C-alpha cells in the first residue's frame, strides 16, 4: 500500500475537483484504500486513494459495463497526484456494509444476497471480452480457458513458488494444497463465462432495508465460473455470515462433483492469498490464519 494521507491531504485533493465540498467523513475501507464520504450540497460522493491506477480504472469499466444490471458505484473520475498516487471519485451508494449489520439484520439479508448472486450468475459475458481470469480495465483477461486460470497457480512459469521458504513460510501446506488441487482438477469442466467479483464478503456488499444496494471493490474481478464467488465465501468462512454460508452450501453443494469443484476453488483462493502476501508482498490477511484455514479445508472439507 502507498503511504497513508492525512485528513488535510485528503481534503485538499477533493477540493481540487469539488471546491465547495461541505462535509468529509472517513469510511471503513478495504485493505488497500483509504475511503471517504464527502458532500457537495445535497450530493454525496466517495473518494478513494491507495490502490493502483489500474484498479480504479477497472472499477470504472465495471460501472460502465454492468451498472444497468448490478448495483455498482458509478466512477466519475480517476486521477494521479504529482507523486503518482492514484485516486478515484464515485457516486455514493446508500447502505451499510454487511459487516456493520447486527445478527438479526444479517439473518434477514440472506435472501437478498442470494438474489444478488443469482443476478451475477445470469450475466452473459460477451466474447468480445476475451479470455478468462482477472481482467484489466479494458475488459481483457489473459487465459485462453477457465481451466488455464485455475491451474496457473501451480504452473512454475507463472507462479514462482521456489522462494517461499526464503520469505519465511514453511512450504508444506502449499505443496499439500497443490497436490490436492492437481488430484481433483479433473472435476472442473467449465466453458461458459460468468462475471466473478472475486472478493465477495461482508466488506464488499452494502445493504439497506433488507436489500443489497451496492456491490463494491471490484479490483479482483474476473471472467470464469460463478462458483468461485461461492467458494470465496466458504474459504473465508466469516462468523458474521454463517446464515448466508449455510444457505450457499444448501443451494450450491448439491452433488459430489459440485462440492469437489468448490473444494478446488477454495484451494486456489488460499494459494493465491499466500502467494500475493508472502512472495509479492501485497497487503493481505493474517498469513497464519490463511495457512491454518487451508490445512483445515484439506483435512475436513471433502
Automatic annotation (TrEMBL):
Gene3D superfamilies: 3.30.200.150, 3.90.1200.10. Transmembrane segments: none annotated. Pfam families: APH. Residues 24-252 form the Aminoglycoside phosphotransferase domain. It comes from the Bacteria. InterPro entries: AGP_Transferase (IPR051678), Aminoglycoside_PTrfase (IPR002575), Kinase-like_dom_sf (IPR011009). This is Aminoglycoside phosphotransferase domain-containing protein.
Amino acid at each position: 500500500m502507498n503511504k497513508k494521507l492525512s485528513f488535510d491531504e485528503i481534503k485538499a485533493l477533493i477540493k481540487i475537483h469539488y471546491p465547495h465540498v461541505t462535509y468529509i467523513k472517513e469510511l471503513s475501507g478495504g485493505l488497500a484504500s483509504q475511503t471517504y464520504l464527502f458532500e457537495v450540497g445535497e450530493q454525496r460522493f466517495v473518494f478513494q486513494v491507495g490502490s493502483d491506477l489500474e484498479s480504479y480504472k477497472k472499477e470504472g469499466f465495471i460501472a460502465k459495463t454492468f451498472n444497468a444490471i448490478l448495483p455498482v458505484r458509478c466512477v466519475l473520475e480517476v486521477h494521479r497526484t504529482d507523486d503518482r498516487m492514484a485516486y478515484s471519485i464515485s457516486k455514493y451508494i446508500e447502505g451499510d456494509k454487511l459487516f456493520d449489520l447486527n445478527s438479526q439484520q444479517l439473518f434477514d439479508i440472506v435472501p437478498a444476497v442470494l438474489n444478488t448472486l443469482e443476478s451475477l450468475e445470469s450475466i452473459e459475458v460477451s466474447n468480445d471480452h476475451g479470455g478468462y481470469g482477472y481482467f484489466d480495465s479494458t475488459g481483457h483477461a489473459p487465459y485462453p480457458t477457465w481451466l488455464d486460470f485455475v491451474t496457473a497457480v501451480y504452473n512454475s512459469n507463472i507462479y514462482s513458488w521456489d522462494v517461499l521458504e526464503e520469505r519465511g513460510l514453511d512450504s508444506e501446506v502449499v505443496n499439500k494444497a497443490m497436490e490436492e488441487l492437481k488430484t481433483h482438477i479433473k472435476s472442473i469442466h467449465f466453458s461458459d463465462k460468468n462475471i466473478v467479483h472475486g472478493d465477495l464478503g461482508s466488506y464488499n456488499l452494502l445493504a439497506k432495508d433488507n436489500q443489497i444496494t451496492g456491490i463494491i471493490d471490484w479490483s479482483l474481478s474476473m471472467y470464469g465460473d460463478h462458483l468461485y464467488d461461492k467458494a470465496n465465501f466458504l474459504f473465508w468462512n466469516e462468523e458474521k455470515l454463517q446464515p448466508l454460508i449455510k444457505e450457499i452450501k444448501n443451494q450450491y453443494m448439491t452433488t459430489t462433483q459440485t462440492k469437489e469443484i468448490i473444494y478446488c476453488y477454495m484451494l486456489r483462493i488460499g494459494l493465491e492469498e499466500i502467494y500475493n502476501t508472502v512472495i509479492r508482498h501485497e497487503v493481505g490477511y493474517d498469513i497464519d490464519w490463511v495457512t491454518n484455514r487451508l490445512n483445515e479445508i484439506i483435512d475436513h472439507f471433502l
